[in-house]
Amino acid sequence: MQIVRHSQQTLKTALISKNPVLVSQYENLDAGEQRLMNEAFQPASDLFGPITLHSQSDWITSHPEAPQDFEQFFSDPYRKIPSPDKHSIYIQSIGSLGNTRIISEEYIKWLQGYCKAYFYGLRVKLLEPVPVSATKCSFRVNENTQNLQIHAGDILKFLKKKKPEDAFCIVGITMIDLYPRDSWNFVFGQASLTDGTGAVD
């Protein structure tokens, strides 16, 4: 087991930009937002706690990627930016998310709350749940796990058709396994940057 812990200076270097556009935004933060920024880099803060890698098969160690700091993210020419008329995140639940409707509703409201906090300033709206059959997606039974799986690409096509006019993006949530193509065992999720659609299980 390995624990990855970043120093205060590493976090500040990665997250605080010297880009003039962002510097002007930092200066306009209200008192609460400034306090949050200051607390974020303290050693005892819960915002950037240590990451525990439980084994060499952990996703982080088995799928190495080049690091990206906030400056690189902000300057990415392909980064999608919300606009006044595209300012809402829509969550579409697909199939049951729990043993009862009440559990499913509680789960999706919990997810909505997290999205509102994380994507601060964007509206987060819930669409009426739909059964899997409504998506008309392809499906299979995984030969290794014997679990029912639905095709992630077909879910994205369904979401693209359902995407409201004011949507910055729409994300489908399901408890059913996803697969992107026949040669893959499964996938945690799939998204289209250009269409503003995503599906996760």
TrEMBL record:
GO BP: any one term: proteolysis
Protein's UniProt keywords contain S-adenosyl-L-methionine: no
Swiss-Prot/TrEMBL keywords: Hydrolase, Metal-binding, Metalloprotease, Protease, Zinc
InterPro entries: Archaemetzincin (IPR052009), MetalloPept_cat_dom_sf (IPR024079), Pept_M54_archaemetzincn (IPR012962)
Residue stretches in coiled coil: none
Necessary cofactors: Zn(2+)
Molecular functions per Gene Ontology: metal ion binding; metallopeptidase activity
PANTHER family, A to Z: ARCHAEMETZINCIN-2 (PTHR32205:SF5), ARCHAEMETZINCIN-2-RELATED (PTHR32205)
Described function: Probable zinc metalloprotease.
Family under the similarity heading: Belongs to the peptidase M54 family.
Identification of the protein by name: Archaemetzincin-2
Source organism of this protein record: Callithrix jacchus
